[in-house]
Amino acid sequence: MNIKARKFGGFRAKNQLTDRQDLFIGRMRRGKAISVKERQRKLYTNNKGDGGGYRYRGGRMWSGVYDVYELELTSVKDNTELRKLLIDTTGYFEKDSDFLFLLRGKGGYVSDEVLGTFLPIVVYWVYSGLYLMLGNMDNYRLHSKKDEDEKNLVSKKEVVKGVLLQQIVQAAVATVLFAVTGDDGESGADRHASIFVLGRQLFVAMLMLDTWQYFMHRYMHQNKFLYKHIHAQHHRLIVPYAFGALYNHPLEGLILDTIGGALAFLVSGMSPRTSIFFFSFTTIKTVDDHCGLWLPGNLFHIFFKNNSAYHDIHHQLYGTKYNYSQPFFVTWDRILGTYMPYELERRPEGGFEAKPVKDCKEH
Ligand SMILES: [Zn+2]
Ligand SMILES: [Zn+2]
């Protein structure tokens, strides 16, 4: 097979390796061996070493996270297959005409699992920060500012502390879980998953998370002990606002979000890379459902029946037995008769009010 010498991600394929590259590969090959996963492409021989932190660039060794694959060229069907393979490759060395050493980055210095754990936290504060920057928005609020100050049973400072505590606990648990069950960075394996497959995975994950959260959330209302000691914390916000979205008891965060998220991830079969998107999107959706505003053109209000007004009903004292569904669809509420239809009415002083259509106040 004829492979053109070309520069690729800082590496140059050559027929002859320089001493330094030889040394480099030698170091790579002496790296700790890791088990080969079944789903690894057949293209590779079963020789996989862990890069363990060497990366050659500009004549210097840099620390980085790479997998090294030894590719037997006879196992590659044609040039198209080889090209496809090289797109996924950070760099390669041609050792001789039969073998190619591929370096596959695991997405830079940070693994997808770590990103999937920490990016949603950043996304949470950035997205709710944007809502904060919008200011009072009196013409679009679902409750007056006065109601927010008077009805809520917890200060904003306490809310920030509570959210941070919950995020720290969840990130710690997720990190430990990944360390125990850990994948070794095969996350690029389905980088070429079709849009159809990605769409199906995301949809399955959404259904799974919704199902888990509906029943857990509803149970936390029905079981007086759990409500009093755990879920009541979230309901201290009668008038929700964006950065209060994850103001929960840490145990609630673990049960609803961490376990629910893990189930959605496992059942959908998505890659850790896809999960970065899924968990970030879920975070944005949850923040939006608590934004306390009804803004024109908000895509979440257009595409989801489960939105800020729908969830606002649940946060009212009369609505706590309705609209349990979260964060995406209203399906379970509809099937199990806990769906509370509402109408948006203009408030005389500006803004809107989500009013239940059925009279649920006496229940
Ligand atoms: Zn609730
Ligand atoms: Zn809520």
From TrEMBL:
User: Start and end of every Fatty acid hydroxylase domain?
Assistant: 203-338
- Which InterPro entries does this UniProt record tie to the protein? Fatty_acid_hydroxylase (IPR006694), Sterol_Desaturase_Related (IPR050307)
Sorted UniProt keywords: Membrane, Transmembrane, Transmembrane helix
Q: Which residues cross the membrane?
A: 114-134
Subcellular localization: Membrane
Family membership: Belongs to the sterol desaturase family.
Q: What is this protein called?
A: Fatty acid hydroxylase domain-containing protein
